[in-house]
Write a structure and sequence with these properties.
Elements lengths: L3 H5 L4 H5 L7 H16 L3 E5 L5 H11 L4 E5 L2 H16 L8 E3 L9 H9 L5 H15 L20 H4 L18 H10 L3 E5 H10 L13 E5 L4 H8 L2 E4 H17 L5 H18 L6 E5 L2 H27 L5 H24 L4 E8 L2 E8 L3 H9 L4 E6 L9 H7 L5 E5 L5 H4 E4 L12 H16 L3 E4 L3 H11 L7 E3 L5 H10 L4 E4 L16 E4 L10 H12 L4 H18 L10 E5 L3 H4 L3 H7 L4 E3 L2 H9 L1
Parallel strand pairs: 1-10, 1-11, 2-4, 2-5, 3-4, 5-10, 12-17, 12-18, 13-15, 13-16, 14-15, 16-17
Antiparallel strand pairs: 6-9, 7-8, 8-9
Helix pairs in contact: 3-4, 4-5, 10-11, 12-13, 12-15, 13-14, 14-15, 19-20, 19-26, 22-23
């Protein structure tokens, strides 16, 4: 079998096959570490600096391992890049066909039965949906995968697709006439036949949370898993080992029961009355949570004393709907998924209202008309240790941001990985030459009322020096909007504001408009790749500490305190340092990039804890003079 050196060496297969390939010692070191971890059934943490080429460094050992390996990525876009670009390229280097597939969530795939039903039943609204239906119907006749990504001409915000996709809420399973031809069935068949399965973190943890249930697993058994963008997994895993129930779930259930009962001819006055009653009870119950935003919830006993009747009426209304559906004759393939959804809502309500598990943090999240009742584990380390690291022989986690001040301690503690191999691979970029780190010393504390106005003037000066070409990133939407409003009439550059258009559209506009400036919040801190001089400056308003009053942050900080630690030192600082590293990573994406990172929060130089942030960043030149920024761009 071909050795790793044969792939990665200066005259190796990669260099011979890819005109832009450059030998990187760190890439070879990472590939060797991954190969050893897979062979020796060990866990591995790898911080791979930007430009390492970590994708090939884990993908080639996975393909050579002889094991079934699941590769879990942070986004669907990275999944697609791995499968359609990287695997396709590597296939040219391997003699035998590579046994690789990808799996996504069900809403990415077409449901053939829904498509055929739509041809017979009046479910299309307007000329646009008629046009979209024609596109989907023609595509269905030729597609092998049924993945929406193939249908590039379908609008991103299609109103028809959600009614035709294969999400499980309306799936009849093996009772469906199209089960053998179902794209979900085919996806599972490909996975069983594959050696490498590419998923995303959401799908992976949805599977992990259900693997102990009968018929709950989504993925076939595997011997190893590799997490790319592993810094995200604590937050994502929490969503699947927790619980969420909302008024929207109930509303969608009511809508679907009404639609299906009419389409499949089992509508009745009793079902209609059950739906009307459920709608009323749903509205009354969720009106008990009137406060906007995320609000902690802890006094379950008092809530039941005050509002037990409203809660009981909602659960009884769900129960009555289930009873009406279960006695419906000759329609079990349609009623069963609906009953299953109603039962899951009941279970979620019961857990949230009645159980009061002190290992979970509970909160409400209201956004206008939507009310979500949420609960996630306070400490995921034990869950991940028991459900993942103790069961899977080899788990490999990689990211550009896993260490704080040079150590993996924080990541190991949060994820429950005390015994693990570690490797740091420095970036191939020359940050000391390519980056100037600017911290203005004269600005007030970001918590001061004076900060916004002074920060806006500082941003203006930096942008004039850089000629635009910048991301201006904020820790809050309110602060972003306040600075933007102060500068929108003062700057001559094309200005783009987070929220004015979809994220992908804003990035495309940024890349195509010379001197553009994008004002953004958290979603632009990571997973964004803009190479070249178009992005030459990243301005960050403040150290990205999470809001301490947020229910999840507050509960996890309290858990650290109760365990004998210091929440600020052991949790909040490391978390913020990793986030700052992500922001830093937006700036340099190639060996020829140059740029300025400006942080408007001088606590990084004035407070003792600032050293942890500084030591967590790659090497850089530092200045506190705006004139040096101008000189940097004048070169």
């Amino acid at each position: 079998m071909t050795s790793l050196y044969s792939f990665f060496s200066q005259g190796g297969l990669l260099a011979q096959s890819h005109p832009q390939y450059e030998f990187r010692q760190g890439q070879l070191e990472m590939a060797k570490a991954v190969e050893e971890a897979l062979r020796e059934r060990k866990h591995l943490l790898v911080e791979a600096g930007t430009g390492t080429g970590k994708t090939l460094a884990y993908l080639i050992p996975a393909l050579k391992s002889g094991k079934r390996v699941v590769i879990s990525t942070g986004t669907k876009n990275l999944q697609e890049q791995l499968f359609f670009k990287d695997v396709a390229f590597l296939q040219t280097l391997f003699e035998k066909p590579l046994s690789v597939c990808y799996m996504k969530g069900r809403n990415n795939y077409l449901c053939r039965q829904k498509l055929y039903d739509a041809e017979r039943e009046p479910v299309l609204h307007g000329l646009e949906e008629v046009r979209e239906y024609q596109l989907i119907r023609d595509w269905e006749k030729t597609t092998q995968m049924g993945d929406r990504i193939e249908l590039a001409v379908l609008p991103e915000r299609s109103t028809l697709w959600p009614r035709l996709d294969a999400r499980s809420e309306m799936c009849a399973g093996q009772k469906c006439p199209q089960f053998d031809r179902c794209f979900i069935t085919e996806m599972h068949r490909r996975a069983v036949e594959s050696d490498v399965i590419i998923v995303n973190h959401h799908l992976f943890f949805a599977d992990l949370a259900m693997r102990d249930q009968a018929f709950g697993a989504l993925l076939p058994d595997y011997g190893a898993v590799i997490f790319d963008e592993a810094h995200e997994i604590e937050d994502i895993a929490g969503q699947y080992f927790g619980m969420s129930v909302s008024n929207y779930q109930v509303q969608h259930l009511i809508r679907d029961v009404a639609d299906v009962s009419r389409q499949k001819l089992f509508a009745s006055p009793e079902i209609d009355r059950a739906l009307i009653d459920l709608g009323d009870r749903n509205e009354q119950f969720f009106a008990l949570f009137p406060h906007e935003g995320r609000n902690a919830f802890s006094n379950h006993r008092r809530f039941l004393e005050q509002h037990g009747e409203s809660y009981a009426e909602l659960t009884l209304s769900l129960e009555y709907l289930c009873a009406r559906l279960e006695v419906t004759a000759n329609a079990v393939e349609y009623t069963l998924p609906l009953v299953r959804r109603a039962r899951l809502i009941q279970q979620g309500l019961r857990f949230w209202v009645e159980e009061a598990d002190n290992k979970f943090v509970y909160w409400t999240d209201r956004r206008q008309r939507g009310v979500h009742l949420q609960a996630v584990p306070i400490d995921l380390s034990q869950t991940l240790s028991a459900r993942l690291f103790d069961r899977v022989p080899s788990v490999i986690l990689t990211s550009a941001t896993l260490t704080v001040a040079g150590t993996f301690d924080y990541t190991q503690t949060r994820l429950g990985l005390p015994q693990v191999r570690t490797l740091r691979v420095d970036s191939q970029y020359d940050f000391a030459r390519q980056v100037l780190f600017y911290v203005p010393p004269q600005l007030p504390d970001p918590r001061s009322n004076l900060f916004t106005e002074r920060a806006a003037r500082e941003v203006q000066g930096i942008l004039e020096a850089s000629g635009g070409r910048a991301f201006v990133l904020f820790t809050s939407y309110q602060q972003m909007r306040a600075v933007y409003d102060r500068l929108k009439d003062e700057l001559d550059f094309p200005l783009l504001l987070h929220g004015d258009a979809p994220r992908s559209a804003l990035l495309e506009a940024f890349r195509n408009q010379r001197g553009a400036v994008l004002f953004g919040t958290s979603s632009f801190w990571q997973g964004v790749d803009v190479q070249g001089e178009q992005l030459s400056c990243v301005i960050i308003d403040r150290l990205p500490f999470a809001v301490p009053s947020d229910p999840v942050i507050a509960a996890r900080a309290q858990n650290v305190r109760e365990s004998g630690g210091d929440p600020f030192r052991d949790y909040q600082i490391p978390q913020a340092a990793l986030t700052l590293k992500q922001g830093f990573g937006r700036l340099i994406r190639s060996t020829t990039d140059r740029g300025v990172l400006a942080l408007l929060d001088n606590r990084i130089t004035k407070q003792a804890y600032g050293k942890i942030f500084r030591d967590s960043l790659p090497p850089y030149r530092f200045t506190d003079k705006l004139g040096d920024v101008q000189d940097f761009f004048d070169v």
